[in-house]
Amino acid sequence: MTIPDPLRSAAQASKAWPYEEARKLLKRYPNGAPDKGHILFETGYGPSGLPHIGTFNEVLRTTMVRNAYHALSDIPTRLVAFSDDMDGLRKVPDNVPNQAMLNAHLGKPLTQVPDPFEKFESFAHHNNAMLREFLDRFGFDYEFVSATEQYRAGAFDDALRQVLRRYQAIMDIMLPTLRKERQATYSPVLPISPKSGIVLQVPVEVIDAEAGLVRFEDDGETIEQSILSGGAKLQWKVDWAMRWYALGVDYEMAGKDLIDSVTQSSKICRALDGRPPEGFNYEMFLDEKGEKISKSKGNGLSLEQWLTYGPQESLAFYAYREPKKAKQLHMGVIPRAVDEYWQFRGNYPRQTIEQQLGNPVHHIHDGKLPQGELPVTFGLLLNLVGVMGDASREQVWGYLQNYVPGASVDTYPELDGLIGHALAYHRDFVAPTLQRRAPEANEATALKRLDLELAALPADASAEDIQNIVYAIGKDEAFGFAELRDWFKALYQTLLGADQGPRMGSFIALYGIENSRKLIAEALAA
Question: CA–CA separation, 398 vs 401, rounded Å?
């Protein structure tokens, strides 16, 4: 008798979205592994602009589903990160140099457009390298696949012949979805011009499907050309379907803005005698203004920006939560993501297995959580750095060692990384706008009382004792605070220059009673 694995049993019933997605793949192959011997996950990437968090986010979420599938099944899996780098350059991104040069190469496959950064063989090679570097840095297990290399090597030739065989069926699927003027020129096949090297958007006539021959007009001349081995690429919805068919893709997720595209590509895949993959549609990240993040606009956050101000795990945490809910992605969300990640990580060891499977950190670390804890919150670190001014990492550690017994880089290595993030965040986003307001009359009276109470405490007073004093002052009707939160807001605005802040007991204990009294004196003198 086989003893059931408690993890597998719990995963079968877990409502965490990666397990719900993984169970779709169990139903897809109820009798075991497919003929190819593995389950294929795919993520797609259009390298027409610099990679952004949305791109990374898709690989991360797909990896979480893949890991969840491993908990449910012993069938091997692969993850392909596919770059559609044979696509023609449609417009010049706003956030890259050498705009005039790029304009001169509009329409050419991205792998034939020179790199505006002058570092790589082409614009696509540059952006592909950036994507791979980040995915490698995060430790993803994936295989990078270039559309250009696949087309040119003939890897898609059999599938391209099938596209020509089913040409009319594909047209019947696509034409009703297009405007009348677009219907007149639409073709599923985009031949590469032998004259200009541009990806042509022209009608084509199938001459010989088995030989891959088509006929089209190119600058007034009738051309007969094979679409095999790099002679053409496909319109992207058809290309997507062809890829699913050629590679045998079993799972691919997509943004909510691509729901119609998934529908059309799925129909085309079936017309090719293929089976569309499983997947789900996630909501898009928005920038601070509530607008969709775009590679070409360069709005929102870049991968590099998030990793300057927060660790990788905080980004993964933010991506995991509520994938079907639109979320704004800007600098202000980073501190909270950092602290919530650590909160969930701290809860994990004390949870039941069912609770652990629903904990975001389980999916971030695939159940293999690193050792270590955090003695202070990231928010508290930010406030400490804020009052210290132009501080060094060593100076911050000096304060922490007064507050946390035995604190050092060796005992809290992850805290050392967070100090670097806090210093960068303060330097770039807090310091330029930091403005402490003068206290109002009743607030000044309350601050004087706080100063007297602190003066009576020993230097090593606990954070809890200090917090009790802060609470008592806020609740004292003599100081005229309508609500306790009005007192806390006054402390944050007059002492820290912020609208929100930490538990003041923890902050004062960390910053030191004498230093905190100096802050109060500065506020009263304002």
Answer: 5
Residue 19's nearest CA partner among 371, 353, 369 is 353
Q: What is the pLDDT of residues 151-185, one digit of tens each?
A: 999 999 999 999 999 999 999 999 999 999 999 99
**259-268, long-range: CB within 8 Å, 24+ apart, which pairs?**
260/177, 261/236, 261/237, 264/173, 264/174, 264/177, 264/237, 265/237, 265/238, 265/240, 265/241, 266/241, 267/173, 267/241, 268/170, 268/173, 268/174, 268/237, 268/238, 268/241, 268/242
* Helices within 139-288 (DSSP H only): 147-152, 157-165, 167-174, 180-185, 236-247, 259-271
Angstrom distance (rounded) from CA 61 to CA 389: 38
**pLDDT digits over 486-513, tens only?**
999 999 999 998 888 889 999 999 999 9
Residue located via tokens 């590509």 = 265
Q: Select from 2.160.20.80, 2.40.40.20, 1.25.40.10, 1.10.10.350 the CATH code of 441-525.
A: 1.10.10.350
Note the pLDDT of residue 290.
74
| Residue 199 DSSP one-character state | B
Q: Give the span between the Cα atoms of 143 and 112, in whole angstroms.
A: 23
Tokens of 31: 């009798």
Q: Look at strands 39-45 and 77-83 and give their pairing.
A: parallel
- In sequence order, the β-bridge partners of residue 191 are 232
**Is the domain 6-282 a CATH 1.10.10.10 member?**
no
Predicted local confidence at residue 233, as pLDDT: 97
Q: What single letter denotes the amino acid at residue 515? A: N
Those residues with Cβ within 8 angstroms of residue 408's Cβ, 6 or more apart along the chain or in another chain: 397, 401
d(CA 481, CA 445): 11
Kindly give the parts of the chain with pLDDT less than 50.
Answer: 1-2
Point out which residues pair with 215 in neighbouring strands. Answer: 205, 224
295 is in an annotated binding site: yes
Q: Note the pTM of the prediction, 2 decimals.
A: 0.88
- Identical fold for domains 6-282 and 441-525, yes or no, is no
- In this structure, the number of other CB atoms found within 10 A of the CB of residue 93 comes to 19
Q: Are strands 221-226 and 232-234 parallel, antiparallel or unpaired?
A: unpaired
Residue 134: per-residue pLDDT = 76
DSSP state of 166: T
Q: Where are the domains of the chain?
A: 6-282, 288-364, 378-433, 441-525
User: How does pLDDT run across 259-305, given as a tens digit for each residue?
Assistant: 999 999 999 999 999 999 999 999 988 777 777 766 556 566 777 88
Q: Please name the amino acid found at residue 222.
A: T
